[in-house]
Inverse folding.
C-alpha cells in the first residue's frame, strides 16, 4: 500500500468523494480542504458524505454535493447512503474517519483510489478499507492532518479559509438578541466530553467579572436536557445574570451570534472550532486535551493551557513524553484551570482588541 506517492486526479471532469461525518469541530476542519480543492481543481466534482446534524452547518457550501448520514438510524441510515450513491464511481475517496461505523459506511463509496490515514492513526480495521495512506506525521493540529489528505493528489493546503455561509434570517435573529455594538462574550459551557467541562462556580465567576467590566455576556448551548441543566446551574450561581440563549439558536444562528461577538469562553468543543472559523477570539479551557492538537487553529494565545500539568499529575510524566493526541479525561482534570488564569486571559484579549470596557 502506497503512503507517499503523489498523483493528480485525471484532468478535466474528475470526481472526488469526502467521507467525514462527524463531529462538528472536525467537520469545520474539513471546510478549508474543500476550499483548497475548489481553488486548485475547479472542474472536480465534490461529494461529501456528512452527518445529518453537521450538514446543517456546512450543507450550503457552494459547489459541493452533500449526502447526509443519519447515524441515529443505524443500518437504515447506512442503506440510505448506499442508495444515494448507487451506480456511481469516483476517481478518489478521502476516507477521513477511522471509526468502525465509518469504515463500513465507506463501502458505499466506489472509488479507484481510497485514501486513508497512516498506520499509526488507523484503528478499527481502517487499513482494510483504503488502498493509499497519507504520510505518517506527529505533532500536527487536527486541521493540518486533515489537510494532508490532498497531498496524495499532488496538492497542498497553503491557505486556510472557511467562509461558512450564514443566511440573512440567522443574521436578523442574532441582531435581535445582541443589538448594538456592546463588546460581547459568549459562554458555551458544555463539551460532548463532559469531563472537559469546567466547574459551574468558575464559569459564574468569569461571567460576573466580564459583566462588571461592562461586557455583554450571553450563555449559549444546544437544546439537550444536559445543556439546559448546566445553564440553569450557572444562572443560579452568578451575581449578574447574562442573556440566556441556551437552546434558542441553531448552528447557523450560532454562527451569526459569533459575528456579533468578540470572544467566546468554552472548553474543547465544536463551538470552539466554529468560533475560530468565524474569527472570534477563543478563551479556551484546556487540561484534558492538548490545545496544540485540538485547540482553536488560528489563535491559541487566549487559551489557558494546563495540559502539561495534567500529564504530570495524572500520568506521571510531562506532555512531551506521552503520545501525541493522548486525552487526559480524568475526573477533576479541569480543576487545574483556575479562575484567575482565565480572567487574566480575558483581560489580555480585551486589551489586544482595544475593547472600550469600564473599570
Amino acid at each position: 500500500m502506497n503512503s507517499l506517492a503523489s498523483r493528480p486526479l485525471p484532468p478535466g471532469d474528475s470526481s472526488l468523494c469526502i467521507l467525514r461525518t462527524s463531529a462538528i469541530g472536525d467537520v469545520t476542519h474539513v471546510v478549508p480542504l474543500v476550499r483548497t480543492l475548489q481553488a486548485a481543481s475547479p472542474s472536480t466534482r465534490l461529494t461529501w458524505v456528512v452527518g445529518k446534524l453537521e450538514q446543517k452547518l456546512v450543507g450550503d457550501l457552494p459547489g459541493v454535493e452533500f449526502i447526509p448520514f443519519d447515524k441515529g438510524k443505524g443500518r437504515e441510515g447506512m442503506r440510505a447512503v448506499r442508495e444515494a450513491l448507487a451506480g456511481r464511481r469516483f476517481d478518489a475517496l478521502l476516507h477521513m474517519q477511522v471509526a468502525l461505523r465509518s469504515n463500513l459506511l465507506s463501502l458505499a463509496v466506489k472509488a479507484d483510489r481510497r485514501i486513508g490515514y497512516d498506520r499509526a492513526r488507523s484503528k478499527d480495521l481502517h487499513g482494510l478499507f483504503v488502498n493509499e495512506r497519507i504520510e505518517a506525521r506527529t505533532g500536527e493540529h487536527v486541521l493540518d492532518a486533515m489537510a494532508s489528505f490532498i497531498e496524495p493528489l499532488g496538492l497542498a493546503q497553503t491557505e486556510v479559509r472557511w467562509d461558512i455561509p450564514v443566511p440573512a434570517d440567522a443574521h436578523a435573529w442574532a441582531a435581535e438578541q445582541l443589538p448594538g455594538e456592546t463588546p460581547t462574550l459568549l459562554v458555551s459551557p458544555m463539551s460532548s466530553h463532559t469531563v472537559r467541562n469546567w466547574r459551574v462556580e468558575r464559569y459564574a465567576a468569569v461571567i460576573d467579572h466580564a459583566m462588571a467590566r461592562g461586557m455583554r455576556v450571553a450563555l449559549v448551548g444546544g437544546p439537550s436536557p444536559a445543556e439546559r441543566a448546566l445553564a440553569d446551574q450557572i444562572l443560579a450561581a452568578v451575581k449578574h445574570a447574562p442573556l440566556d440563549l441556551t437552546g434558542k439558536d441553531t448552528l447557523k444562528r450560532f454562527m451569526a451570534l459569533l459575528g456579533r461577538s468578540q470572544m467566546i469562553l468554552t472548553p474543547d468543543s465544536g463551538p470552539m472550532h466554529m468560533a475560530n472559523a468565524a474569527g472570534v477570539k477563543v478563551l479556551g479551557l484546556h487540561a484534558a486535551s492538548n490545545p496544540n492538537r485540538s485547540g482553536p487553529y488560528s489563535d491559541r494565545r487566549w487559551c489557558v493551557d494546563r495540559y502539561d500539568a495534567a500529564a504530570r499529575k495524572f500520568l506521571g510524566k510531562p506532555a512531551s513524553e506521552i503520545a501525541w493526541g493522548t486525552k487526559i479525561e480524568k475526573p477533576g482534570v479541569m480543576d487545574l484551570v483556575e479562575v484567575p488564569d482565565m480572567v487574566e486571559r480575558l483581560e489580555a484579549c480585551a486589551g489586544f482588541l482595544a475593547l472600550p470596557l469600564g473599570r
